[in-house]
Amino acid sequence: MDYFFELFLGGMTRGSIYALIALGYTMVYGIIGLINFAHGEIYMIGAFTALIIADVLTVAGLPDFAILALAMAAAIVYSAAYGFTVEKIAYKPLRSAPRLSPLISAIGMSIFLQNYVLLAQTSDFVPFPNLIPDFAFMEPYAHIIGSSEIVIFAVTALAMAGLTVLIKFTRIGKAMRATAQDQKMAMLVGININKIISITFIIGSSLAAIGGVLIASHIGQINFYIGFIAGIKAFTAAVLGGIGSIPGAVLGSFILGWTESFATGYISSDYEDVFAFSLLVLILIFRPAGILGRTESSKV
Predict the structure, then answer these.
(1) What integer pLDDT is reported at residue 245 of this predicted model?
(2) CA gap 11, 262 in Å, rounded
């Protein structure tokens, strides 16, 4: 039974990180109908930013939690700036273009950011310091769950709660929902949709940066390619739950995380991706809109 709970909690850890990234995919798609394939690289840049700041602060002798908080804050600001800039350079000029154009632009931006970090850093895996200390009250359960998993669950829950409050109970959230429903009508009632789209990219990039810092501290290493792998998995989770649906992105992320964890634990790690993407194929066959997605009908 302990092994089952270990796999269950391991799947929750994966699902939490996927959810933080998948929310960026689904928010951008919900607002402008675009798949931001450079989103995974924003997650990777956040992790590298945190590593640089953590190395500097470690030399200064600050405690681990202070280093983690400051490194995460720097990663959020830097990643948000990248998300904002990417939207202005790669996507805004192509909003009225055929749908294939922004898709190619997104893929090109993803490759550019990968190679930018490759040249600026290294192609090798780089060690990332464990900034989450072991909690004394967790010692009896250390064989099942560690302190880093607890922090990941708590931070992810707080981030999702904050996003829910923002979208449901604030003026920006109402403007985001209005823009997602109908951009032209949103402009007619005085909403600056360019500002709302930029805010959406900033929020999604910030959430991805949080995920990048947490998982890097948990695993203990990063490299320039982690954004591609995590981005594909998070995109799969968003489609699984229903692209454009925030609850769907979270649900799809946890289902994907548990699927990978149990497949790795009970079958083989070689089949981890096979089961994950097979689940996606089955969902798309029997429910193309995703688990919580709604099928859109168009009038002819």
Answers:
(1) 84
(2) 8
Q: What are the tens digits of pLDDT across the range 136-151? A: 777 776 677 788 888 8
pLDDT at 17: 92
The torsion defined by the Cα of 186, 190, 193 and 199, in degrees rounded to 10, comes to -120
| 261 and 253 Cβ atoms separated by less than 8 Å | no
Residues linked to residue 221 through DSSP beta bridges, in sequence order: 127
Give the number of other CB atoms < 10 A from CB of residue 147. 18
**pLDDT at position 281:** 85
Q: Using a pLDDT cut of 70, give the percent of the chain over it.
A: 96
Read off the pLDDT of each residue in 170-185 and give the average, rounded to a whole number: 90
Distance of CA 228 to the CA centre of its chain: 11
Q: Which CATH class is domain 2-286?
A: mainly alpha
- Output helix, strand, coil percentages for the chain, rounded to the nearest 5: 80, 0, 20
Can you tell me the distance from the alpha carbon of 298 to that of 300, in angstroms, rounded to the nearest whole number?
7
Residue 239, judged by CB atoms within 10 A of its CB (0-12, 13-18, 19+), counts as: buried
Spatial CA neighbour of 9 closest among 265, 252, 232: 265
138: amino acid identity, one letter: M
